[in-house]
Amino acid sequence: MKRLILITFLTFAYMANAQEVKTLTLKDAISYALENKADAKKAKLKVENSEYQIQEVRAGALPKISANGSLTYNPILQTTFLDAGSFGGEPGTTIQATFGQKWISTAGLSLTQNLYDQSVFVGLKAAKTTREFYQINEQLTEEQVIERVANNYYAVYVQRQNLIVLDSTYNNTTKVKNIIKGQYDNGLAKKIDLDRILVKISNINTQRQQVLNAVQLQENALKFYMGMPIATLIEIPQAEFEVTPQAFAEAPNTETRTEYLLMKKQEQLLEFQKQSVMAGYYPSLSLTAGYNYIGQGPKMPWGAKPSDGVYWSDFSSVGLNLKVPIFSGFETRSKVRKADVELRSIKEDLVDTKLSLDLAFANAKTQIDNSMITITNQKSNAQLAQEVLSNTKNNYIQGLTSLTDLLDAENAFTEAQNNYTAAVLDYKLAEIQLIKSKGELKTLINN
């Protein structure tokens, strides 16, 4: 009874600690990555940050208002010597006059407003383009996340298929071992045959352990690119890897690709940068205004009255400030020419990018064609290898063929299965590149 209770307790404890396996379709994996991967989150934050950049630049066109105040104590007042005749005294004599008060306090408001500043106007246009740049960059980042997740998703499949092939080989080889063991026990088989089959099983176990490790590493890579906790257990449905030939349309318009559009926005930003530098040739005009209140006297003005010898008065000013650049030592000209070189450079990058995108489509199309041929051949080859293995096994049991032939047939079958799996992976990776070259990676979420 106690033993039964212990077993029951351990069973419930195991079930409580067992992790739930998460079944992942490709769509699920991509959706999870777009919500959780740091790259996707940071791209969204950059779009949000662009709004604050616009507000920051816009502030240059808005008035600046500030309050100011000061309190000054003058231990020694400045004095000057004047002709007494100017003040009703005896001409030719000199008097010493003291300027200012021991205590002075001021408080006031000041305003500055740009009336005309070419660099501010250009900055406003550039800020809006910057927002569009980060929006396109967010889209490109999402496409990069989708591509990485899809590639690693299919790579996990290949490793798991390799494991399935090894498990099948192990089961078949174990059955043969049991037959040989029975024959050996009855004196119908040689010990060397039994030893060879045991070595074969040991090698399969070693290979299986290596593939298990590869599966774990590949799954960890997939979970990393998804932004998923590494400890999560995942399962990939077999139906995700059906091979369906892609329908080829005309070559896509690469000028609508996200990579190209992003570079076009960079070109616009460099154009605005050039205009901002050229603004150094333009004059600027600003308005300034201020209103202040000042208190002076022999005592601290705060709270003091005229009866204490402290007097308060106000003053204000309004002014226009005009700045006309005349000569800057050719600094502005050099900056304009530098900006122009950067513009010409990105135009060359645009040409090269378009060529690169066209190349990617052509290569993906070629890889798809070749992969379909390889898959057909390898599938037929795997079926043939299966038939050869089955016939060889029957012949061995009947004593019509050697163990070497049986082991060779098993190796050929395993190799054919692995070649077929590798061909499927090549196809799926090429399929991702073809979809990418069409600018349709996000359709993987909708499928």
Automatic annotation (TrEMBL):
The keyword Flavoprotein does not apply. Pfam families: OEP. One of its GO terms (molecular function) is porin activity. It is found in: Cell outer membrane. Keywords: Cell outer membrane, Membrane, Signal, Transmembrane, Transmembrane beta strand, Transport. Residues 1-18 form the signal peptide. GO terms for cellular component: cell outer membrane; efflux pump complex. Its main location: membrane. It comes from the Bacteria. Belongs to the outer membrane factor (OMF) (TC 1.B.17) family. This is Outer membrane protein TolC. It comes from Flavobacterium gillisiae.
